[in-house]
Design goal:
Blueprint (H helix, E strand, L loop, with lengths): L2 H16 L2 E2 L10 E3 L2 E3 L9 H13 L8 E4 L6 E4 L2 H8 L21
Antiparallel strand pairs: 1-2, 2-3, 4-5
Length: about 120
Amino acid sequence: MARSATWKAVERRTAAALGGHRLGATGAANPDVLAPGLAVECKHRQRLPAWLVGALKQIREQAQPGELGLVVLHESGARDSLVVLSLADFRERWGGDLAEVATGINGEETAAGPL
């Protein structure tokens, strides 16, 4: 899949997964995806940092049933932090049928993890 087609496909799949719609490149400063109660910025990378993927995998394995595994990223001196969780866990907690997003980019399963 061509590079521009890949990130566009990620935005479309994210919109579908969240029950929203992709805004696309409008030339205006707007989110990539709008969904009920959500403004979403999508970032597609060939590879995510191994330490980040590992931290999320670790906490998802350690979380007990009913607990949501989160990774909190904090930059030294910053007032706020970032929260990372899998899209599948987000949807499970806040709604959405994972079966409707069965196949992801390049045939990868999205229901079991990130797009």
